[in-house]
Amino acid sequence: MHGIDYLQKAEILMEALPYIQRLSGKTVVIKYGGNAMVDSALTHTILQDIVLLKCVGVNPIVVHGGGPDINKMLQALHIESQFHNGLRITDEATMEVVQMVLSGKINKNITSELNNLGSKALGLCGKDANLIEVVKKPSSDGVDLGYVGQIQKINVRLLNTLSQDEYIPVIAPIGVGPDGESYNINADTVAGEIAAALEAEKLMFLTDIDGIYRDPSQPDSLIPVISVSEIREMIASGAIDGGMIPKVQGCIRAVQNGVKRTHIVNGTIPHPIVLEIFTDKGIGTMVTQ
After folding, report:
1. Cα separation, 37 vs 167, whole angstroms
2. pTM attached to this predicted model
3. Torsions phi, psi for 206 (to 5 deg)
4. According to a count of CB atoms within 10 Å of the terminal CB, is the N or C end of the chain lower?
5. What are the pLDDT digits (tens) for 223-238?
6. Which secondary-structure segment (H or E) carries 232?
């Protein structure tokens, strides 16, 4: 019995070998969504995956969200949450809370946990070294989004310097405006833009669903591989809506800017990164040109 167990373990490791060889020295951007962060035991397995990537020679860069935590804090302060097309309408009071929760709490929690697992993670937001320069996002359908940023420039040199060395950059999605003011940016958008700017090998969105469904009410209609044009059709028909829109748009932007593969994966199962990247079958939905 033990012989079979050991053989299976060896085969699992060997299955990962060609993927490890292919990705060694390459950049992988991982968007870790607030909705996938609800269980600390699962979070631990995801962060283990990220440390494993670094140990086998991959350069992971983590972009995190924090919507549920932001909502909780806004509620406690009696500040109303409003959304438009999946983006948070951000007035001055909301912006203060967003920065406090993302940079002060979540970013440091992820960073310290990665460090506890033996890596050298470094927490950043877009205001550090002008990492993410933005301007105010124009009104959408006549709705003023407030302090929501539109990305103009990513400090590629800083991210390459850190990630190609021994560090794992962990990035909170806050941008810096022309006068040094803070702007809220959708974390999916940040991940897409960073992956595009770095011409990353892969971009992965960890979320709370299995991927893109042809029909969300049919669990067996998960799409393993989808093209950019198919996604556009599904947005137009309303099959993809709400918070999925920034995710798939991040995928599209990245793929069109030279990122080889983008993935939407369920981050509420253990070790989703390893399962998607290092196995033949993978999980989730892969977006290709």
Report:
1. 22
2. 0.91
3. -95, 120
4. N
5. 999 999 999 999 999 8
6. helix 228-237
